[in-house]
Amino acid sequence: MNYVVVGNSAAAIGTVEGIRSADKNGRITLISDEPYHTYSRRLISYYLSEKLPVSKTYYRPKDYYQRLDIVPRLGERVSALKLEDKLVVLESGETIPYDRLMLATGGKPIMPNIPGCDLKGVHTFIKWDDVLGLEKTLAPGKRIAVIGAGLTGLKAAEALIKCGVDVTVVELAGQVLNTVLDEPAAYLVQKKLEDHGIKFCLRNVVTGIIGRKGKVLGVSIQVGTTLKCGQVILALGVSPNIDLVKDTQIQVNRGILVDEHMATSVADVYAAGNVAEGYDTIYRQRRVFPILANAYKQGFNAGLNMSGNVRSYCGSFAMNSIGFFDLPMITAGILKPEGEGFVELVDSLSPENYRKVVLREGRIVGYTALNKVDGAGSISELMEKEIDVSNFQEQLFKENFDPVNFLQEVKRETL
What we know:
Blueprint: E1 2-6, H1 10-22, E2 27-32, H2 44-48, H3 64-67, E3 70-74, E4 78-82, E5 87-90, E6 95-97, E7 100-103, E8 107-109, E9 122-123, H4 128-135, E10 143-147, H5 151-162, E11 166-170, H6 183-195, E12 199-201, E13 206-212, E14 215-221, E15 226-228, E16 231-234, E17 238-240, E18 256-257, E19 269-271, E20 276-280, E21 285-287, H7 292-306, E22 319-324, E23 327-333, E24 342-350, E25 353-360, E26 363-370, H8 376-384, H9 403-414
Helix pairs in contact: 1-7
InterPro entries: FAD-bd_OxRdtase, FAD/NAD-bd_sf, FAD/NAD-binding_dom, FAD/NAD-linked_Rdtase_dimer_sf
Pfam family, one: Pyr_redox_2
Protein name: NADH-dependent phenylglyoxylate dehydrogenase subunit epsilon
């Protein structure tokens, strides 16, 4: 069997490991437009702030491709797919045949439609090259504007401030992490970042990036003022990188549509990770959710199916575990419920702590924890098993709450 995997991150690695768990002899060719060993993109901010050496960002050991008998084609870009002939076309013109094809092309940064994005000093912040380009230009006292106060923008701001840079974050919404946190939780995160020197310009739109002789001088914002800076980070989120499948028979919505086997609408072509619309068990629909663990699980299941071992992917839900300075944060599922049928339980232990559980039909469908994150794993298990917590929901925030014993009791009652 001849397998071709396009991509080199979590979904791609999950795919090759799924294949190898069932097929030890098939040929696996892995193609990536980046020339680097597989690495965790969520760790690039820690590299920039000198927390991690390069080797610690690797997603797998250095000899990984050799040990799994993978043919890596790193630093080579796929320019087209010839699905009728089962060929992958490289930018060089070379064609690579396949029996089974995995598309794990991930996401690409959303670019705003404003003047000045092509100026020198404008960066995105999702790949190694983004960080390496920034690293060469950083110096204490320099001014950088980060456009976007989502997870990527705030991790970039955190890394930059640790490098001694003057950082201002510009955001359209009235709070940070607008799609992730409610206002009380967002306030705690913003305050933590402000305490470390990061400035915020909320409820503002960047209307243009100002430059002279090709270099950035500042950004103009909707209120009619100019924010002076020498560099700009664009962190407006990511969208599924579906460029390869445009104008092909592969069906797409926001991402590539896949079935429970991670197969696309074209025979022998699969997709997984940030480019695919996987099933979200909480939202009860297919969605794109760029979470590393989910990408790996999708890829592994796809790899099994590609090798002939039928395995259904039952779905998962979005979960983030991240921190800003010494403030840990865990979120999962529906975080800002809209409409009827939801109950929100909030536990403010102290001004520095915040926990919230979202219930629907007596079952946990969302969870937020800031600072005090003990027990998050247990809450996630209750979510995953869809346990009705109505009879003990008032105990969820108690220090001595033990869901393990409760789950055992549920099993006994069921039996």
